[in-house]
Design brief:
The chain is mostly beta strands. It has 1 helix and 15 strands. The protein folds into 2 domains: about 30 residues, no CATH class; about 170 residues, no CATH class. Helices cover about 0% and strands about 45% of the residues.
């Protein structure tokens, strides 16, 4: 992180071989636009599970064994669970392309590759090809546009970090909103096709007694 002036910092993160740059306010709580307190599990724990589906399967993202379910329709409501984490997705695509596949993914477990730490993750992502075995592979471009989406999860932690990536691996501040009940939403479509919509939870209490390092950010 690099300080640009007394009030702002620049943070640079490497993702998929690209540098993602965002400007951060050094004292965000003093800003009138500072977001409201979020209860990240409020919505997800208050609703009935959406209808289950027979398209669930396993896949790997960065050595972690995710549970995935394919989004076979242009719109719908889906629930996907792994261990204690249930991810809820409501979505509507501008069109359902035959040459692109999207999945909802859930991971609730110990990560042991870059240190030992415990994340909980809900993610909507594009697969590299129509072969479901490629879900979780690195992807940089997409053609499918989203009209609306709402993603939430039954997180056991208050440390949850939202991320939306568009084609070209571009961050899109201002194109999504986090509600106080824990929903990550977009109601007006996105400016470009969607690569992924993710909620990264960091459950510190579940870390081993002597973790080698902390949460490495959005390294998926």
């Amino acid at each position: 992180m690099y300080q640009m002036d007394p009030g702002h910092f620049i943070t640079i993160q490497k993702q998929y071989g690209h540098l993602l740059v965002a400007e951060l306010i050094s004292h965000p709580r003093l800003s009138p636009t500072y977001p409201i307190v979020v209860n990240w599990s409020s919505y997800a724990t208050s609703i009935k599970r959406f209808s289950p589906d027979d398209h669930d399967f396993s896949g790997v993202i960065y050595f972690d064994q995710f549970t995935f379910t394919e989004l076979t329709k242009p719109e719908g409501n889906r629930t996907l669970c792994q261990k204690d984490l249930c991810c809820h997705l409501s979505y509507r695509m501008a069109e359902k392309r035959e040459d692109e596949v999207y999945v909802l993914g859930a991971f609730d477990g110990l990560q042991v590759v870059e240190g030992e730490y415990y994340p909980q993750i809900c993610t909507l992502l594009k697969c590299k090809s129509t072969d479901l075995k490629t879900c979780g592979y690195l992807v940089a471009t997409a053609e499918t546009s989203s009209d609306t989406f709402s993603l939430s999860g039954t997180f056991a932690t208050s440390y949850v970090f939202p991320e939306v990536l568009l084609t070209g691996v571009q961050l899109v501040p201002g194109e999504f909103q986090v509600l106080s009940d824990g929903r990550l939403i977009n109601q007006n479509g996105t400016s470009k096709p969607v690569l992924s919509v993710t909620l990264f939870g960091r459950w510190y209490e579940k870390d081993p007694p002597h973790p080698q390092q902390g949460f490495p950010g959005c390294g998926y």
